[in-house]
Design a protein that fits this description.
Glutaredoxin
């Protein structure tokens, strides 16, 4: 009987404290930046071949001739989740102008990621690729998520961003417009 009372008190305590903790947890996600770091000397981007949610294979070399934003992410990463809608906006604005977005998921399976996508207001229309053993992120030197790279039309890493980004920010738009200018 005493054990049941203690258990009920713990449940009550958790129920009272948990709602108050949720806003604090949400506030802990830092604001997204908009800056991307230009590499002084572009370096060759490691090639890869990864499957998307439908099992279709995507190779980096198939995107040669386009600017490609590669975003390494995971569903458990709060800044990754926060930046996903702005990645879609960027893709929608520029995919018809030789600018591509590839989101490379780390360690998670297709069903889990598909379920997460259902929670978004807009389902991403750019390819979601899977790097289940994180071998591609290792080749790119990714040390934390999210990390993004912009690959130039010759297949070289031109820009890098570590941490969440607001990809629809006017400064990012200005950068992309400059890259795509004739």
């Amino acid at each position: 009987m005493r054990l049941k009372i203690l258990k009920n008190r713990w449940i009550l305590l958790i129920a009272v404290l948990l709602p108050g903790a949720l806003p604090v947890a949400q506030e802990a996600i830092p604001e997204l930046s908009y800056q991307l770091t230009r590499l002084e000397v572009p370096v060759a981007a490691p090639g890869f071949e990864l499957a998307d949610m439908d099992g279709k294979t995507h190779r980096l070399e198939d995107y040669r001739g386009n600017w490609v934003l590669i975003n390494f992410w995971a569903t458990w990463c709060p800044p990754c989740r926060k930046e996903m809608p702005s990645l879609e906006q960027l893709y929608q604005a520029y995919h018809d102008r030789s600018f591509r977005v590839l989101a490379v998921n780390q360690w998670e399976d297709v069903d889990h990621v598909f379920s997460y996508m259902g929670e978004l207001n807009v389902f991403p229309s750019f390819p979601i690729l899977f790097d289940p053993e994180s071998k591609i992120s290792e080749a790119y030197g990714v040390r934390g998520l999210p990390t993004s790279f912009i690959i130039d039309p010759q297949g070289r890493i031109a820009y890098r961003a570590v941490g969440g980004r607001e990809f629809d920010h006017p400064e990012v738009i200005r950068l992309i417009e400059g890259l795509l200018a004739p």
